[in-house]
Design goal:
single chain; bis(5'-nucleosyl)-tetraphosphatase (asymmetrical) activity; hydrolase; 7 strands; alpha+beta; NUDIX hydrolase; globular; NUDIX_hydrolase_CS; 7-stranded mixed β-sheet; Nudix_hydrolase_domain; Nucleoside Triphosphate Pyrophosphohydrolase; 148 residues
Length: 148
Amino acid sequence: MAPRGGEYTVTYKEDVVRAAGCVLWRRSPVDGGLEICLVHRPKYDDWSHPKGKLKRSEEPLAGALREVEEETGFRCAPGASLPTVRYLAQGRPKEVTYWAAEATTGHFTPNREVDRIIWLPPVAARNRLTQLRDRQLVDALLSTLNLA
């Protein structure tokens, strides 16, 4: 029943844009320190963690691994789940499920979605991220790796 004198909107779970990604990390080939991979998306001119929308009936972890490889060229070994991030994107609710993931093999080639990647120590990665909501994921990764 609608409230008196007004209408209401019902939001169904199907209305949520579902996406998944990873906080991709590695040990520096120079000094062995922790490095986090960030992607630059020219469409938005931003720096973020690799992520993307899930395909119909795709499991979130499978989608996260697919998106990491598509955007960075790296395969990875998934680890612990990280916090799910929820926000509005173009007026629609979006839910991004994240995992910690260690880069294993691969090589970056610029593509339509991502023109650059950068590997940075955690503090520099946190500062480079465009969205504040992405910065909490760096802290969650460090906690998961017992480095916080």
